[in-house]
Write a structure and sequence with these properties.
Elements: H1 4-14, H2 18-32, H3 39-54, H4 63-72, H5 78-89, H6 96-104, H7 111-119, H8 124-139, H9 144-163, H10 170-185, H11 235-254, H12 262-283, H13 294-297, H14 302-320, H15 328-351, H16 356-370, H17 377-394, H18 399-413, H19 417-429, H20 431-437, H21 445-454, H22 456-470, H23 476-484, H24 486-501, H25 513-519, H26 524-530, H27 544-550, H28 558-581, H29 584-597, H30 605-625, H31 628-632, H32 634-641, H33 645-649, H34 651-664, H35 675-692, H36 706-722, H37 727-743, H38 752-769, H39 772-779, H40 783-786, H41 797-811
Helix pairs in contact: 1-3, 3-5, 4-5, 5-7, 7-9, 8-9, 8-10, 9-11, 10-11, 10-12, 10-14, 11-15, 14-15, 15-17, 16-17, 17-18, 17-19, 18-21, 19-22, 21-22, 21-24, 22-28, 23-28, 23-29, 24-25, 24-28, 28-30, 30-34, 32-34, 34-36, 35-36, 36-38, 36-39, 37-38
Amino acid sequence: MYSHASESLIKQAREIQESELLKFYSRLAKLFQVKELSHETLDSLQRLHLILSANKFTRKLPSDLQQRLLLLLSSPAEQLQVLSSAVLRETLPSSGEELNSIQENISQLNTHTASLLISQAGSKAELSSLCARLVHGLEGRPSEGTARSLMFTLPALKSIVTLSPECLTEEHVTILSQRIIDWLRYASIVQGGGASSGGFFTGPRSRQPLPTAELDGSVSGDFFTVLCVGQGFTEDQWMNVYSFSMLRRWLLTYHSGSSSTVDAANRLQLSLSHSYDDRSEVDGSVVSMVSATSSSSRLLPPKERLREKAFQYCQRLIEQCDRKAQKKADTELQKACMAEAVCILDCVCIEEPSLVFRAFPSIKALFGRLSSDLSFARVLLPVAQFYLNHGELAAVDCESVWKLVFGRFPAELFSDPFLSHELLRFLRLNLENLQLRVPEFIRFFPNLLKFLAWDSTAAVEDFVDLLPSLVTEGTAVEMLHTLLDLPCLSATLVLQLRSMSLPISEPSSRGLMSLDAFRNPAFRGLFLFLLRVESGSGHTIDRLSTLHDLLAEAANWPRVVRCAQAVPLLLHIYFNTVVTVADEKLLAHLVLVMLERSSLLINIPSFHKDVHRVFSSHLLKLCKLRPSLVVDQSHELLEFAGTTANVYSKEEVYTHVVWVLGEYLSASSDSRCSVTLITSCFETLEAVLFEITSSAPPPGTLCPAPKVITTLMSALAKLASRSHDLIPRVSLFFSKLRTVARSGLVPWCTDEDDLIAIVTRGEELWSLLKAPGVAQSVLTPPPHIITPRWHRDTNLALPLQLRVLTRLTHSQ
């Protein structure tokens, strides 16, 4: 948090007395009376800001001091602008007259004044009034005094549009749209800032302004854009840049869908054309093929005209990006402008589908030029968005786009955090559209999961939303294996990057054994499977133990541990989804996978426990949903339950498997359940229970948990209640258990309280089995007892009593 000195200052600011504060106000007001403000004034302003911001109650400054601070907003020193604006934002809103004076004097507007006006607008009405004044300042042709303020007016309007779009009326939207058109299309093409061609005879009279240049150094031959460069820029060129920066939001906010006031907008557009269009045609730049429709576009309504000019501007930007920039920074600027231009074209084409056919040639050429260079990956994502939205209308083949986006990008750029975020965001925003138009994207799920394996902390939230759409009947089994192998994939991605950056170690040198294994051709197939791009390319279930041995040293790598921590959450989402898409055959297969993979996990102890806990929870849910699974997979379940080692290594899963066998292996759950099957299950569980209660646990293992023993005892009692011939056998075991416990020699249970609980449970079950009819009703209750519907049964006593009481109260 804060240092001791900082906390002391904050405490002093909070505890300042009102009398001291008034003296401080008066001293500060005197400092403002001096023509040249000193460092003492700056320090006092900083202290005032600390006092106001540290207090939870908003204060009101004296009127003379507040007036002085308002005047400082137009100070030539930016430090004073920042401090005065920060202080005023911490006070109660200024009076209406003071704010109106600032709003009326638009020539004084700067970034800090604009932010203050927006922050102190107390209602939407005040914000609308501010919008009206700002837009009114844009209506006339700017003079030299107000030209600079326009550079701050547009960002202020953009902030208002972001916060409260409804503050602008249709008239304001039309006016500002017309201004954006002029700034975009008709900005000056000569350099600002007094740039000249130079020369020995150059003087004030002979100095001629230079034209703007392209990024490759050639003279700009068309209208000005954000990619034109020069030694200086004019005000309208800066407005061109600002207009382009807010164009996409403007189109999405005010130019999407039909307008109810088109006629009024058309009349206003005609009136504006007299003041702007004539000047635009005279002062415009050299006409190119992109802008050949300039004259005819003037006859369009404002919204259509802005779309047309935005379309021309973006086409020109894409054309400029073909040029080779002379500076590296300009290359990055080209990438950003390409991405924004394609996004704007996408917005325009969504509103005006007829433009799709004009836009696609340039988009297709752009994709063909950039697709081989992965440094343009973030530019190609907007291109993919354009193909997704308009590829069907234009009847173009998009397969190469999806192979690049879902194939090469995750496979080669999984470590790029920006691409990871943008690609996963692309998937989330377009999930329904992708499922409808590009259903084959699901087969790339092993590739997409590389983002999660590399940076699980950043990507897990995205996959919480994406995972349900990736689970289908065809991908369910492979998806489960892939999620369980996610920590292995994380380690493999680390090894892949290290193998490219580290030299091959000599046999005598110390290096990573896992890295040597990654480079070893004998194990190459294992790692290539983990790094596969598409699903359905085989599995390595037979060699998973080998893979886990090779990656043993990776179990402690932070990236792998974080990835393992994200898997249980995704497994819960997976199982909750798979029950909605899988049939009984697939669910039976998944039960087998859970039993098999419970021992085939990377050696991270906490990971084993978490996965076993998830398996146990969802095994119960699956069997409760489909009780017939227990009979269908009885052989595999009995084989798992009959392995004594599972009691010690997979306690959680083993306990729930035993409970499932005892609960659902009955004729009431499945008519196929025979006495032979019940007896076989009984004998298997009896053998395990006898083994673990007659000897000490194996060396290196703990005693079996009491929960495992009591679950085995309950399962045996349930099975015996369904086949009465088994009751003497289980009763004999319970009696022996009580005898052994009383003798005090119990190597399989070291805790006395646990032993008492186990013996008590045995005596309870033994007592129940003495009355077989009662035991069966208690241990295997009929369905109408398990799922009561008392609230619907009109013959029960409680509803009858409630009705009687209701009648008695109503009669009174």
